Amino acid sequence: MPQPLEDDASPSEPLQALPVAASAMKFPKARHSTPILESLPLSQSETNLAFRRSNPSAASLYASTLSPPGSRSISPAGRGSPSRVLSHTVFDSRSNRILAENAGDSPAEPLSLVLRAFVPHVSIYTSEDTEALMTEKGFRHGLWELLRPFGEDVQGKITIRDSNGMSRGVEGFSIRFTRFGDNVEHPDPTVSGLKNPAPSQGQNGSQASTSRDKQLLADVEAVVESHLSYAEESFAAPPQHGVFANQDMSEETSPYYALYLRRLLSGLPISPHETFSHPVACVIAISSRNPNPIEELRRLYTETNQGSQRLPLWVDSDYLRYYVLVHDEEKDDITRSMGLFEQMKRHLGIHCHLLRLRSSQSAETDDDSIPLPRSDWMSAREELEDIRRSEDDEDFEDPTRYIFESDATAIRTFVREMVAQSIVPTMERHVSIWNDQVASRRRGITGRFMNLSRKWAFGGSSRSSSGTSSSRDTYNMAGFYSAEAPEAIMRKLADYAFMLRDWKLAQSTYDLLRSDFSDSKAWKHHAAANEMAALSLLIMPQQMSSKNRAETIDQMLEAAFYSYNTRCSSPYGALRSLTLGLELLRLRGGTNIDDAGRWGVRLLESKILGNVGDALMKERLAICYGSKEGVGSWHWGSRRRKSATWSVLSADAWLQQSKHIQARRCLDEAHRMYSTLPHKSGITKFGAAGDFMASLQHSLAESPDASDNENDDGDDDDIDEESEALNDMRSRRPSAVSGDMFRDTTAKDGMDDGT
């Protein structure tokens, strides 16, 4: 029997304390759950030292799911004040609501993930002496590795001014540091709609684009699968029936779904159809060791603008250059560095900073050392490589890096100063100029008339050849718009407005681009514009009727999904557009929840998702339907039956993957949801459905314990027999319920409650 935890070993202790304690504790093997596991909810037992049994050095790789970020609910229930106007249907207790101002506060919420995914990207390009200095500090990937975690949460409020001149303070603003010239996705001319597309260098048409997307989705699935397997192996026994009965899934999100969304939105490539990952600024850094600092800075600037390191033609090279002088506090003279910094400002302008760092490597035992947090927004491929290295290398060390507290303070000051005084004002200035000089000409009656004149010949009912050519004259046959084209500038304007959270300007600009991209048959650009127009409209703080939603949101999401999935063979874009649309619709409540559920079912039917994504999406549909409230004491109009059904289906999906913890959580949630029905009978009168749930319960009860794998040969034989029986039962289960699971047998027993 495991010993109870001491008072000072609370579950809220930092994760760094886990490996040492876990490696020193031994626990007996048991097939059934222990009293501690039965008495603790999953959120506590996951961080409990008594159940950690895996490689201590690899524990930090799974911190995002062992300690879910944030403690607030992901459910929309209770968020925003309900409107008192009449509902759209008699069963809707609340009308569709706007998103609350604090709806994106929790880091695990989908809205927060959207706001932190589509952020300004800042490239880093450094000199060789700066890379050598970073290597001495223990960062083999250079200055980028050191700065990356600090850009994900800029300290303090950032003041942003919208297109109307109104200023507001934004908490939790973030930027994404990237390596200059890394992760470039070349255009695909085969999806442009042109008859004779020009060949793209280094690409093999749509097959290469589709294979990239499939590989990305496979990496995301593999990362979440590794986290799930690690959690399964970390428990002494599988959870038993009723462990999660008192937990409401609609009140907290699965950390694995939050991880799935983060990895799906991480590592956006520099692509021609959207400009979120195009650099807003480039940090050009040298160290105080450089013998010719001014000449070196000019050489680095030339390489980013004209040399071999120059970005492709469809990336605007007129981005901010921010010059940084890294001063070595331990080996160089600060007086000389200050003089050099003043010289930099005279020659290069005001966008400069003196970053003072210590060159020695910090250790965990140092008095003033603090751990450098792992990036929450690393790409799926990067995290997967770390996980595989921890599994293959017996001498794998904890990847946590430590820095001096003085270095952390200097970096925070540098990042905030660069964002508040250089990046945001530069973006605001570009938005104002592009809006006045390019986008304003397309708005209003005059702009619409000019747009029609581009596409149609005067006095004729059919499109002329001149009209067709003029509508495509800015679209390159290789599959992209040049950076100087009006369409490319307007797309950048819309993306800048979205990153600065000016939703109205972003949505109106995306809406203008939809028709332009459709006329040019630039289908991937067309899909991306429809996707972001729908997301901007959903985030905007305004009420939306069912009719308006059907005419705008539904059509935009349908156009985005069809263009991504059918015309462009881009499963990543199709998955991203419907997933984010589903989550934002769910947050609005009311009849939007039913619409969100339909898009979720559409995504499941498309077969884009893998096994893990399929189970997570079914789990999300259960939460989505469970968040809809009903009217009266019988909760007319709620979707509790649908929520419970999707919980059962998600439990079955998890069980087929041998993820017993998740399966038990979903099955207990289904029992809890059925118990809330007014008649309290659940599905007792649905024979096939009851048998199906009983088979799931039986499978969980007889699932082999992971700890029994270490038993002797005699015990292994018993496990093999149980596994064979379990597999045989799973193969029979779908056929037993395929025809009668949803057969209504209550007609002869009385009227159902309609939920």
From TrEMBL:
Biased composition (Acidic residues): 705-725
GO cellular component: TRAPPIII protein complex
Annotated segments matching region Disordered: 64-85, 186-215, 700-755
Bias (Basic and acidic residues) ranges: 741-755
Composition skew (Polar residues), residue ranges: 64-74, 198-210
Matching PANTHER family: TRAFFICKING PROTEIN PARTICLE COMPLEX SUBUNIT 8 (PTHR12975:SF6), TRANSPORT PROTEIN TRAPP (PTHR12975)
Name of protein: Uncharacterized protein
Organism whose genome encodes this protein: Fusarium ambrosium
